[in-house]
Design a protein that fits this description.
With 213 residues, this protein is mainly α. It is 57% helix and 6% strand. It has helices at 23-37, 43-59, 81-88, 99-111, 117-123, 127-137, 140-144, 153-172, 174-187, 195-206; strands at 4-5, 8-9, 89-92, 191-194.
């Protein structure tokens, strides 16, 4: 993503491509929604909502502009999560080279936002849906070497990673899974850790052998 570079995010002048940076227009939309729902907010609450929405541009999955005159424009990703994650954590493995990417994507999706239904109507199949269709026809190894699939490789890896972590969660239970994941991240903050250490933790503390999956 060209807008997100190591340790910096490139934003257009005056934030013209960011909907949530247009505070006047966002306030008008917010006022209309409150009138329809008969809600009342203090000026401080209104300002807080507007600012929170703007900050969400950099913590969610996308923050671009989508106008009715140009509805096929792809939203621009301004998420700071890749910079944050790669600064704080790295899990490496010679046998599982895509593990770190899969974990980053899984955590990012947990914090991000899904595609809005009205946008789904305009843009057609999402990358996730294209990846699912591809996985119905080819396995992961075949997709990785298929030049015609290179535009969805990242999404395929995200889906496979999400499946892996959901599988672990189903075996451990939600509370144990959260404790395991958060503990692994916190205990290895600001250093490069071996994936085999996480596998060992699953074996020893939760009696779950992921290598047999």
């Amino acid at each position: 993503q060209e807008t997100v570079q190591p340790e910096m995010i490139l934003i257009s002048e005056n934030g013209v491509l960011i909907d949530r940076a247009d505070f006047s227009r966002m306030k008008r939309w917010q006022d209309r929604r409150r009138e329809r729902s008969n809600q009342t907010l203090t000026p401080q609450e209104i300002e807080s909502d507007l600012f929170s929405g703007f900050i969400a541009t950099f913590t969610g999955s996308s923050g671009g502009r989508m106008m009715m005159g140009d509805i096929v424009r792809t939203p621009i990703n301004y998420s700071i999560f890749p910079n944050y994650y790669t600064f704080t954590n790295n899990f490496h493995s010679e046998s599982l080279p895509v593990f770190n990417f899969s974990l980053e994507s899984f955590l990012n999706d947990k914090a991000g936002e899904g595609t809005a239904p009205f946008r789904r109507f305009f843009i057609g199949l999402t990358d996730e849906e294209k990846a699912n269709l591809a996985l119905m026809k080819q396995n992961l190894a075949e997709i990785l070497v298929d030049p015609e699939r290179k535009d969805i490789v990242a999404q395929v890896l995200k889906l496979k990673g999400a499946f892996l972590f959901k599988l672990i969660e189903s075996k451990l239970g939600t509370e144990n899974f959260q404790n395991f994941l958060v503990g692994s991240i916190k205990n290895n903050r600001f250093k490069s850790a071996e994936v085999k250490e996480m596998i060992s933790t699953l074996n020893q503390q939760y009696n779950f052998n992921i290598e047999c999956v």
